[in-house]
Amino acid sequence: MGIRGLLLRSALPLLSRVGTMMAKKGSAPFTTKITKGITLDPRDPKTWWMVYAAQKQSRTPIMAIMPDHSMFLGGVPARKFYSDARVNVNTTAAVAAYYGFDSASGGGDTYNYEAEALGQKLIYSDNAMPTADFRDPLIKEHKDLAKLKAPDWLTTGRIRFILDVIKLNKVLGYKTGKFCAPFSLAVTLRSYPKLIKDLKKNPQFAHDLFTVLSDEILPSYLKLQKKYCGVRAATGADAWAVFPNLSLDLIEEWVVPYSERLFNNCLDFGMMAMTAGGGDYCEERLEKFDKDILFKCFAIQKKLLSNMPMFVLGTGPWHEYPLEPVVEYLTPYKEKGIRIAIVAYMNARLLRDGPVERIVDNIKRFIDVLGRDYNLAIILANIPADTQPQHIHAAVAAAHTYGSFPLASNLDEVALEVPERESFQEYAEKMSAGTGLNI
Amino acid sequence: MSDIVETVKQTIVDGDDDGAVAQIEKALMEGIDPVKVLKQAIVPGIERAGELWHDNVYFMPDVVLSAEAFKAAMKAVEPHLAGREITKLGTVIMGVVAGDMHDLGKSIVIAMLTGAGFEVIDLGVDVPTETFIEKIGELKPDIMGVGCYMTTTMLELKAMITFLKDNGLRDKVKIMIGGVPTTQQFADEIGADAWGKDALDAVDKARKLMGA
User: Fold this and answer.
1) Are residues B30 and B99 in the same domain?
2) Is there a single domain that holds both residue A103 and residue A175?
3) What is the pLDDT of residue A216?
4) Is ipTM beyond 0.95?
5) Are residues A18 and A150 in the same domain?
6) How far off is chain A from B166, nearest CA to CA, in Å?
7) CA dihedral A36, A41, A46, A49 (to 10 degrees)
8) Which of these, A244, A300, A395, B210, has the minimum number of CB atoms within 10 Å of its CB?
C-alpha cells in the first residue's frame, strides 16, 4: 500500500465526520459549484447551463439522469450520442439548461464500457442505447475466466469516449468519475441467470470472478480514469444489485464485500470508488411494500457508502410508497442533530405518463416530508425518451418553488406557476443565435 | 402423488435444473406417464415458485432459477409428449423488440405462461417487426407478446402496432406488451390489448384475453 493509500485510509473516519458536519450545515448531495462570471457562448451549449447555474438560488436541488431523453430531444442519432463525447455532453448540457436543472453531466450506457473493452459483444442501433448481447456472454464457461485481462483501456472499445465525457463533465462542475460496479459488470459478462446459478452452485467460481474484477480489472481502469480525467472519486452503477433483483442475503454475501474490496484497492492509489445503487429498494408491487426489508436495504446502503450520512430512495415506485417509514428510520439521526442527506428519485414511468398534477404533488410531498429535516436532492430517474417536456418543466418548477429555502411552513399555501415554455428546438435556436446545437 | 413426482416438483421449486432433468428421466424410466409428470410435477412446480414470489418468500434470483429448471424440465419431457392430447389455453408468440437484447423478463413470462397451459413460441430478442408479422401469418397465434426494456425501444412497439393496423393485420391477433419502462397508459396509447405488469400479471391478462 502506498503512502497516499495509507493517508486516505486513515482519513476515512474523518471523512465520514466531515460528511456529517457538512450535513449539519445543510448542503445537499451532488450540489455543483459554478464560478460566477461565465460568459455565454452561443456555440457552446455547456455555457448555456453554466450561466444559468451560476445564478442559482438557495433551494432543494433537482437534477436528472436523462441520456435517452437528451438524445431524443436533441435529435441526435444513437450511434453518435453514445460515441462522441462532445456531442453527448453538449446535448445534455443544453437540455439541462432548457429545464433549469441544478446539476448537469453527460453520460450514457454506464454498464457497458468496461465489459465492451474486455471483449463483451454489444449491439448498436440507430435509435437506442447500445446494449450487451446477453445471448453471447463473454464468460460462457468457467474456463473463459482466463480471458479476463485488463486491456490497454485507452485504445479499446469506447473507453476514450466515456473518459472524455468525464473530463468535459468537470467543466460543468461535476467532478466524479463513473464505472460499472463489480456485481453488475459480472452480470454483463456472464448473464444474470448463469451468474445466479454460479452463486448458488459454484460459489468458488463466482468468488474467482468477483476477485479478478475487484482486484485487477476495475482498479486498473479506475487508476487510468484518475490519471486521464483528473478525478479523485468515482461512483459505480449497480442496478443489478438492487432489491429484489437480488435478495438481501445475496447482496450481503456478494455485493457488499466486493464493493468494499474494490473501494480499499482503489484507496491505494488515491481514488474513492464507491458503488451506488446496491441495496436500493425497488419492489414494484405496492402490496408487497415491506418496511423491514426497506430498513435492511438502508443498512446495506450505509455499508456501501462507507457510513456516509446519506440514503437513497432510488428507482423504485417512490411516488406510490409511503414516506412515513423513511422518516421513522431517519428519526434517530435527527434526534442526534444529524442532517442526513437524502437522494430521492422521481419515478421514470410517472415522469412519462404524468399527469402534471401528480408529478407536482409528488415533488411537493418529497419536499414537505424530507426537505425540512434532511438535506434533500431530487433526481428525475432516467427520463424516458419521449417524455413530454411539459412534465419535466412542471417537476422543476415544483422543486424550485416548494423547495425554496427557507421552506414555507404550509406548502399548500405556496402558489405554483408552471411556465408555458417554447419547444427545445426553439430554445436551442434562441440560445445559439440561430446556429442550433452545433453538434 | 408418488414420491418421484413430488421430487420432480420440488426440483422446479428449488430451481435445480440438473436435478429436474435427472428426476424426470428417472420417473420416465420407472414408467410414469409423461403427462402426469407434466401436470402433477412440472406445472405445479413453477406455479408454486410463482406463489412464493407473490408471498415475498421468493425474489428474482429464486424465480429465475425456477424458470430455468422449468425450461430444462420441459425440454426433457416434451419428446415423450408427442402425439398426446394436451389441452391448451391458447397459442402465444413472444419476443423482444428490435434493438433490445434483454431477455430475463421474457424468460420468466414464458415459463409462467407455459405453466398456465399456453403454448408459447419464443421468437427471441432483437426481433424485427417483419418477423412478428411473418409469424402471425404462419402460426396464427391467439396472442402476440412483445417485451421492451429500454425507453427508446419501447417506441418500436408504437410503430409495430401502427404497421399492423396499416396492413389490416391488427385484428388477427391480441397484443400484450410488457417490460420495465411500459405502463398501462402506454399500452392504451399505442392500442395494445393488454399490459403485463410482471410475469404473474401477464398470465392473468393472457387468461382474460382468451376469455378463460
Assistant:
1) no
2) no
3) 98
4) no
5) no
6) 22
7) 50
8) B210
Q: Do residues A277 and A238 lie in contact, with contact meaning Cβ atoms separated by under 8 Å?
A: yes
Q: How many residues does chain A have?
A: 439
Q: Give the structural domain span for B114.
A: 90-209
Across the interface, whether the CB atoms of A131 and B68 are under 8 A apart is answered: no
Q: All 3 cell numbers of residue B211?
A: 376469455
d(CA B112, CA B52): 13
Residue B87 has pLDDT above 90, yes or no: no
Give chain B positions within 8 Å (CB) of A386. 151, 155
Are residue A167 and residue A275 in the same domain, yes or no?
yes
Inter-chain residue contact B186 with A353, CB threshold 8 Å: yes
For residue B127, the Cα-to-chain-centroid distance in whole angstroms is 16
Question: Domain check: are B57 and B33 in the same one?
Answer: yes
Cell of A151: 486491456
* Per-residue pLDDT tens digits for A289-330: 999 999 999 999 999 998 889 999 999 999 999 999 999 999
CA A337 to mean position of chain CA atoms: 28
Same domain flag for B124 and B77:
no
Give me the domain span that covers residue A40.
Answer: 1-107+309-439
Alpha carbon B157 to its chain centroid, in Å, reads: 19
Name the residue in chain A with its Cα closest to that of B148. A128
Per the listing, cell 417485451 goes with B147
What are A275's strand-pairing partners? A236
Q: Between chains, do A352 and B107 touch, taking CB under 8 Å as contact?
A: no
At residue A379, φ and ψ (nearest 5 deg) are -120, 130
On chain A, the residues whose CB falls within 8 A of the CB of B124 are: 135
Q: Are residues B108 and B189 in the same domain?
A: yes
Nearest to B126 among A71, A123, A353 (CB): A123
Chain A environment of B155 (Cβ under 8 Å): 127, 385-386
Report CA A64 to chain centroid distance, whole Å.
9
